[in-house]
Amino acid sequence: MRSKNKFSEWLNQRSPVQLIIIFYIIAVTVSCLLLAMPVAHKDGVDLTFMEVLFTSVSAVSVTGLSVVSIVDSFNQLGIVLLAVVLQFGGVGVMTLGTFIWLVVGKKIGLKERRLIMADQNQYSFNGIVKLMKGVFKLILWIELVGFLILGTYYLTYFSSWKEAYFHGFFASISATTNGGFDITGQSLTPFKDDYFVQIIHIALIIFGSIGFPVLVEVKDYLFASQEERKFMRFSLFTKVTSITYLGLLIFGFIIMIVLEWNHFYADKSWHEMIFYSLFQSTTSRSGGLATFDMSLLTEQTQLVTSVLMFIGASPSSVGGGIRTTTFALVIIFILTFARGKSKVSVFKREIFEEDLYKAVVVVLMAVGLCITAIVLLTIFEDSSLIAIIFEVCSAFGTTGLSMGVTAELTNISKVILMVLMFIGRIGILTLLFSFNDVTKKGEFHYPKEKIIIG
Amino acid sequence: MRSKNKFSEWLNQRSPVQLIIIFYIIAVTVSCLLLAMPVAHKDGVDLTFMEVLFTSVSAVSVTGLSVVSIVDSFNQLGIVLLAVVLQFGGVGVMTLGTFIWLVVGKKIGLKERRLIMADQNQYSFNGIVKLMKGVFKLILWIELVGFLILGTYYLTYFSSWKEAYFHGFFASISATTNGGFDITGQSLTPFKDDYFVQIIHIALIIFGSIGFPVLVEVKDYLFASQEERKFMRFSLFTKVTSITYLGLLIFGFIIMIVLEWNHFYADKSWHEMIFYSLFQSTTSRSGGLATFDMSLLTEQTQLVTSVLMFIGASPSSVGGGIRTTTFALVIIFILTFARGKSKVSVFKREIFEEDLYKAVVVVLMAVGLCITAIVLLTIFEDSSLIAIIFEVCSAFGTTGLSMGVTAELTNISKVILMVLMFIGRIGILTLLFSFNDVTKKGEFHYPKEKIIIG
Ligand SMILES: [K+]
Ligand SMILES: [K+]
């Protein structure tokens, strides 16, 4: 704590919630100003305030739901600005959010902070800033590689190299930030038979949504010497996140094959089935890009996809929803309870009671929130119930997959979805803390037990 | 514990879960045998095994969903037998269930038992049996009064007094046990303008579903002298249950008026609106009788009704669902967490952590269970999603309200609904305990804190 400067003191005086909300309002305002500029629009396009606002909220929260067609509304400048907003919203919020947890969140005593800091040996303010810079750089590198690969590959699709690399540029940012926007006008469906494009997109989406601590730890591991590796161990956070993330990917993959065997896959080849399922499972974490029309799926797949989007991506990532860790903790909690044990452990490490409480509250509140939103949307929209459920879960999970409801929403429903995108992105827990002054007074604590089993 | 006899020792050797499952299997088997008898059927009616089984499970769990028309399938004898099964399933399971909690459940250290026994001063086995007998008698009295009032009143509707009192007999049992079956062929719609009939039904449904400890305590209070009343206080269970029950009633009443103002109520008078809403709110607790066709409601009301049915009735009642107390504890839990407190109290009394854990697990598992059932039914049925959601919540809440899906289900969906009715009736917690041997070894305990605030 030696090198605290004025900025960090100012930060310390704001609560994390204040900071995140300030950041959001600034980000959305700036995004609105940028995207409202007529010079960013195609000729003859006149966007309403609501359209610009919705696009901005969707972009800052890297959701990808859109009430206008991006490619029909924005010119090249507009698309570049949108990419900047996505980068800002995705990586910026991720970095800032984590930064806030690390610096200011110490008052709350968050498990994530404890784990990360212990494992990264980053106790000082400078160390944290360095860590954040490292993450930011890492993501820029990922995006650059994605841009080069996709841009070069797109030379086979587009007549000019400018167009190819422009598409590569936007695709790489949209995939890595899990922005989910597209400038093809039909998401990734033009590449439904191009498995190379899909694999690159899958990789970028996963890099963005698996959580930055995982990225950092894996990077550190890969760049370490044989000798150093002996002393390295992955944090509990990384283990739980990665396994849950992978588990959800596999589940999403298998369930889609099972549910669509006689329907969507009835006339498809085995490799089409594998890639459609793989891409769909990945994109429903948080990506939002699609290789086919969601309304072609059976209602049961749409429902399961809704649940998967509701769960969302890892914390400290570019994704939303209740988060993979929350889901994992709740499952662990239920299993522990069902087995009649009162102490919860995983990977031979303790789980703090407060983390369980948090996870459970997040899920319960998220369920209540989404049900409320669904009921409200059935009042204001004529769409089918499944389409509404799908859209609500997509907004809360900041996924951006759509069954086409968003394009023709009433204004009040747009506001509801914007609120969901906002809450989904900042997380229920942040919202919860905004209702009390716990982060300032530090009153929030439950009894802790250290348990080492095995 | 002085007067334990052999029967109680035998009971002690069974786990509560074993007992309840044994009871269920016996009850459903006996019910199947009774209702399968051709002598109980109308001429020319030939019921399949699946139809008899579904009717039996629905009757034993006092749900009221039916794949056959009761009045078209069963003759007078069959209807009397059905009433007996309802009585057995409703009051029998309630009494037995509570009995088991009280006698065998002491190993689990259940809050309910503690509260009831402390407040009723019923510590001995004989005392408990006496209490159970009292409850059973109380319900018989309620049913008798209901029968006399309804039967006599029905003289204005039916040409013969036999018919009038027969209808009164069945209606009283179906309402009090929250059985939800009808012999009019169209539930209570013939009485949609008869507010007297509706009020009697509302009273009987509430008596059955508000929870027997409430009944007993209120009865004790009413029959006590002025002097005795000074020393009486209602248990925490009664307070929490009654207030939640009442709160849900009021919420259901208001929300229906709000959501149907321009739809179902557009052409109705103010008193029609009040009575339709009042009856619908009451019946969605667990009753299952209806004064109008559910498909006339807007999708939003159908959704909200589904949620209300999912919550269900009070524990230790004839109802199902997650139960009012569970709902209340979860709300209290979330509010406490949001306010940044770690200790939970209500009415200046402590809430045990284990009760919070239980409540949370019940809700999470119930949500998971119902979503799974909904996905499965969308696979096997062609019905609309809202109709499936409605039917699933109705089965889990053992409510029995229907949008007409049940009548034409595939066999696999019938099995799914039967499982839901079974779990909804015995309660998620009982199901949970069946996965571990906790009730035998008594390993299940969390740290407890006594908190007296105010
Ligand atoms: K997205
Ligand atoms: K019922």
From TrEMBL, chains A, B:
Primary location group: membrane
- The keyword Membrane appears for this protein: yes
**Segments traversing the membrane:** 20-40, 52-71, 77-104, 138-156, 195-216, 236-259, 318-338, 359-379, 385-403, 415-435
Q: How does this protein lie in the membrane?
A: Multi-pass membrane protein
InterPro entries from the entry?
Cat_transpt
PROSITE patterns in the record: PROKAR_LIPOPROTEIN
Compartments where found: Cell membrane
Q: Which UniProt keywords apply?
A: Cell membrane, Ion transport, Membrane, Transmembrane, Transmembrane helix, Transport
Q: What is this protein called?
A: Ktr system potassium transporter KtrD
